[in-house]
Amino acid sequence: MSEEHVDYAQAPFTNRRYAGFWMRFWAYLVDLIIVFSINGILLIPFKFINDGASLDIGFWTVTGILGSIVLYLYFLFMTKRFNQTLGKMIFGLKVIREDAEPLKWSDLLFREVVGRFIHRVLFFTIFLYIVVAFTAEKQGIHDMFGNTRVVFDE
């Protein structure tokens, strides 16, 4: 039996296997472990600057701001460059556009920055991720903003 590579640009929409909530959840957890590890390494010097006390800029902390920047940049650049983050790579998932064209910066800014910001703006909006379990193409709110889908990389 020969293995066949699916070219999503040529494949009809019905041949795609959309990644469901749990596969995306586990990939996201792996990504968070990676981002938190990077943040831990990058932000250690800030603990020593102020004898362990947090550096505040009004309502925010410096480590919170820098940690958020690292998180958004990780998701933005990994998805733009590889169509997947390291977590998605491990679980064999890939982000594609609705029309199967290459991902554009505008798609990713809406998906990775605006969409993820909305998920984090209030404590209960994190639960909007569960929308993935109930949509036909397994889209989260952030996917809808960016006109993207997460599929199995077959």
Automatic annotation (TrEMBL):
The keyword Membrane belongs to this UniProt entry's keyword annotation: yes
Gene Ontology CC: plasma membrane
Keyword Nucleotidyltransferase attached: no
Protein origin, superkingdom: Bacteria
Domain RDD: 18-147
Compartment(s) where it occurs, according to its Swiss-Prot or TrEMBL record: Cell membrane
Annotated membrane topology: Multi-pass membrane protein
Keywords: Cell membrane, Membrane, Transmembrane, Transmembrane helix
Segments passing through the bilayer: 25-45, 57-77, 117-136
Pfam families: RDD
Official protein name in the record: RDD family protein
Organism of derivation: Aquibacillus halophilus
